[in-house]
Design brief:
heterodimer; A: mainly alpha; Non-ribosomal Peptide Synthetase Peptidyl Carrier Protein, Chain A; 4 helices; B: alpha/beta; Peroxisomal Thiolase, Chain A, domain 1; ten-stranded mixed sheet; two-stranded antiparallel sheet; globular
């Protein structure tokens, strides 16, 4: 089973998309509307997760991810165990 | 002789006079133009061995010219373009901002400023990095910034975006003549009346195996072996016009020049660094890689005609001088073909001994060096020079030389058979 620390994942999102530290990232945050993540940065986030944790994504999964929660759910469906910080 | 005085705003062919009002550079001798010039004038070499950038498992040489502290992985990377992980963009934007600094706060019309930013290879480093990553990825395998980052015209795009310059934009690619071609194109836009000013130049960073190793296998690149004087001291690897020249040494860098009509420069009260009086470009129609003497000669003559001066008016020639056997002999013969008996009175120097060959950016750096030489009356040396009996011009070996210069020429020649020649004139504001 792949284990990912929740805070590391959030930091990965923040770093990849250059989200300012003053912007809070929560599970209900919408990537585009709340975090200002455009489509290019969104794909970069998924690529980094793929590179760091070996998780690949299907086109259907990608199009269904609108919030951080969607992303976390997608990871859980792939058998990923999310660890608290 | 050119029949203009500084009081006239048009040249001998009734075209707007074009002056240089800003210059910027990055090179293996420094992160800006003053540091680069100081190194060139002092005869320092910037070529080093770097096994981190050029590991011998992947590259046929580990010697090159590297710019410190720039690029996407550097902690002082420009945050505005950090997602575009192509080094030529980072180097190019830095030198564009340096060249445009004198225009800060000046009331110019941004729609009347052209941006002509060239590169031979663009973002091939980013493409190569992404290709390596893609090998271990699945269906989602290529970063979305790969295409925007590798486009050659993205450099002009980023300069336009971050400096707010909105006139005509071009991203020419003419191999190792790219930077000089960019200056020609910028000046043409001004002469045509399509712009009052033009920020022109080139940037290059392409240390990827496909380029480095192909240059090596075609015997253009120096692959320094034990016993060569460059092996223990890599700064002696690039040796233009020398008896023991063994190919060019690849480097990265950028050079940008801000051009303006004389009218606009005066209106904006800008310091004038030199005048761009003559230009020419032509094609060889001859060979994919070899220089062609007769067409180079023609190009140099066309630039003199464009400037409206005779051959004996040139006080300094900044050479393409790559340190390859064929270029340096062909260029020497072409100079004799153009300048005749006067050739031996012209100091000829190549900065590629110090900076290596930054490919598309090289001729922009050389044009900047030529303008600085005019301003200061100082000719930078050709370093690492050992006399070749067959190359008998004054190559200004080893040490800088003081000499008043009124007119100077810089020329460059690229694979694909493309040449340019640029003539600059010292500015006397009287």
């Amino acid at each position: 089973m792949i284990e990912i620390r929740h805070d590391e994942l959030i930091q990965n999102i923040r770093t990849t998309a250059k989200i300012p530290s003053k912007v809070l990232i929560t599970s209900t945050s919408r990537f585009q509307d709340d975090l200002g993540v455009d489509s290019l940065d969104f794909v970069s986030i998924l690529l980094n997760i793929q590179d760091d944790f070996g998780i690949e994504w299907t086109d259907e999964e990608i199009s269904g991810i609108l919030t951080v929660s969607d992303l976390l759910d997608g990871l859980k469906k792939r058998g990923v165990k999310l660890l608290a910080a | 002789m050119m029949n203009t005085s500084t009081s006239q705003n048009v040249d001998h062919r009734n075209r707007p006079r074009i002056v240089v009002v800003g210059m910027g550079a990055t090179s293996c001798l420094g992160r800006n133009w003053p540091a680069t010039w100081a190194g060139l004038r002092d005869g320092r070499g910037g070529i080093t061995r770097n096994t981190d950038r050029l590991p011998l498992e992947r590259f046929m040489t580990d010697i090159g010219g590297f710019v410190d502290g720039f690029g996407p992985t550097s902690p002082d990377s420009d945050p505005r373009i950090v997602k575009l992980e192509a080094r030529f963009l980072h180097l190019g934007l830095a030198s564009a901002e340096e060249a445009w600094k004198p225009l800060t706060g000046k009331p110019y019309d941004p729609d009347r400023v052209a941006v002509v930013a060239a590169s031979a290879f663009g973002g091939m480093d980013l493409q190569d990095n992404e290709r390596v990553k893609a090998e271990s990825r699945g269906r989602l395998n290529m970063g979305p910034y790969t295409v925007p980052g590798l486009l050659i015209n993205q450099l002009g795009g980023q300069i336009s975006q971050h400096l707010g310059l909105l006139g005509p934009g071009f991203g020419p690619s003419n191999a190792c003549a790219s930077g000089g071609h960019a200056l020609v194109l910028g000046a043409m836009l001004i002469r045509l009346g399509m712009a009052d000013m033009a920020l022109c130049g080139a940037s290059e960073s392409v240390f990827v195996p496909s380029v480095v190793n192909s240059f090596a296998t075609m015997k253009a690149l120096a692959v320094i072996k034990p016993g060569d004087r460059g092996f223990d001291d890599p700064s002696q690897s690039s040796r233009p016009f020398s008896a023991d020249r063994a190919g060019f040494v690849m480097s990265e860098g950028s050079g940008m020049i801000a051009l303006s009509t004389l009218d606009e420069a005066r209106r904006l009260n800008l310091e004038i660094l030199g005048e761009f009086v003559g230009l020419a470009v032509n094609s060889d129609g001859y060979h994919m890689a070899a220089p062609f003497k007769s067409q180079i000669e023609k190009c140099l003559k066309l630039a003199l005609q464009d400037a409206g001066i005779e051959t004996n008016c040139i006080d300094y020639y900044n050479a393409h001088g790559t340190s390859t056997t064929v270029n340096d002999s062909t260029e020497t013969l072409a100079l004799k073909g153009v300048y005749g008996d006067f050739t031996k009175q012209i100091p000829v120097s190549s900065i590629k001994g110090a900076l290596g060959h930054s490919l598309g950016a090289a001729s922009a750096l050389e044009a900047i060096t030529t303008v600085e030489s005019l301003r200061r009356g100082e000719i930078v040396p050709t370093i690492n020079h050992v006399v070749d009996p067959e190359l008998d011009l004054d190559y200004v070996p080893g040490q800088a030389r003081s000499k008043p210069i009124l007119h100077a020429m810089s020329a460059s020649f690229g694979f694909g058979g493309t040449n340019n020649a640029l003539v600059f004139r010292r500015w006397n504001d009287d």
